Amino acid sequence: MNSNDLKLIVKDKYDEIARQSKIQKETSCCNLSGCCSTVDYSIFSEQYDQLNGYDPNADLGLGCGLPTQFADIHSGDSVLDLGSGAGNDCFVARAIVGETGHVTGIDFTDAMLEKAKRNNAKLGFKNVDFIHGDIEEMPLPDNLFDVVVSNCVLNLVPNKNKALYEIGRVLKPGGHFCVSDVVIKGNLPESIRKNAEMYAGCVSGAIELNDYLAIMEKQGFQSIILHKLKEITLPEEILNTILSPKDLLDFKSSDTGIFSVTVSGTKPEK
Fold it and tell me: What are the two backbone dihedrals, phi and then psi, of residue 145, each rounded to the nearest 5 degrees?
């Protein structure tokens, strides 16, 4: 499957999700790798309701971390949220940047953009906007943002090198990113990967953690910090059906697994 086909799958599925409530989504089978009745997005998501700026209408439970907590956003900053969905992280970032800052969300799913713009209209923010665009080719000028954030989106992007290049391009010199994402540690058995994709679709584009960090280094980012590493545990009933008792024991005793991470990095001043 080529990159364009993968993007179409992601766009179609997130368009479907955007048209559902959070409760409908959590109990449906609109994940990225097929239909099943046991899709559980909650194994990735974090609780937002304690954060300033949280809007329950914008929370579709699609994140895998709280990137704004580690993003070192300040009052007056210009912030870009990649794959902004219904606006959840944008509205949290807006509570930090205040009236003097600005927050932009970019997404390529029309239904998500419509939902985000409706949410923003209800909140009445004049310094938050949402634009249509592909993260691999953002319709934005160079050196525009102080901070770029993203929540469980880069793992869905086919060409992560291009996405990280674009992040560096739109950041101001000395600016930084903070992203939450899903990664793999070690050589994940194919049977586990396939079943994990059926259980929670965010696994479908995840790559190995060291490869993920290496791409950031390749694109010239400095001071790369792994702020959070949280193991994603698949239910025993799933693991028991795909692994022998010995293989299950070996898997549990190894460092191999699926993890959510929150990572930041800085664009050089020159």
Answer: -115, 145
